[in-house]
Amino acid sequence: MSDVVNVQSTLFFETPEQIFLRVFSVIRPRTAVPMMTVKFCPFANANSFIRLEAGILEVRLTDVLRDAPAPILEALAFILISKLYRRPVPRSYSHRYRLYLNRKDVRHALHGVRKERGRKQIRHPKGKWFDLVELFEDLNIRYFHGLMTRPALGWSARPSRTTLGHYDPSHHMIVLSRVLDQEKVPRLAIEYVMFHEMLHLRYPVDHRGARRCVHTPDFKLAEKEFEQLREAKEMLKHLP
Length: 240
Prior knowledge:
- This protein is of the alpha/beta class.
- The protein folds into 2 domains: 2-117, 2-Layer Sandwich (Zincin-like), CATH 3.30.2010; 122-236, Zincin-like.
- Helix content is 45%, strand content 17%.
- A hairpin with a 4-residue loop joins β6 (165-168) and β7.
- The model is unreliable at 1-9 (pLDDT under 50).
């Protein structure tokens, strides 16, 4: 029991560099410990990065984690170094880190940095073939009794086929992929994508412990109210 206490006590007095070096030795016990640099950077999100170049292990962490408890940095060290060497990330450390990011105060801090530092490169809502404002207001009347306040709207800067739309709560903005703004794309398909993103305003992400549920049961139930739902989804599978 005393050994466990001593290990935990040591952890709390380690610098970030010492934590990462120790974890490196655990994951790569037969590899010489490299030189290490750990920097906290003003990123616009919770992303952190690691790379090994010229014998130097460079770690860049979001400055939101500057005051994070040592066990959280230890968990992140296991995550980053495991991914660097293509090793499975230990579930216990992944759970510990997700649990911390899901804390209300941490989510609030991340929301703040995204809003302050994040830049949204979008195009005007009136596209070449479709007007997002007109689409939003039409759906607002048909499905939400005209009671939903319109967020910022815009077409994406790049025509993504993997992300057809998203709602950004930090900027209170709905963005639809420019790949949908084509003459051959049926209006019904675009209406469905907009409707889906509008539901994210009504049914926010549910945070419980380490669990983050984007599409809650209420969300999924409300989505079924969209007329011709099956047809719209099928159309999106065959975009021009």
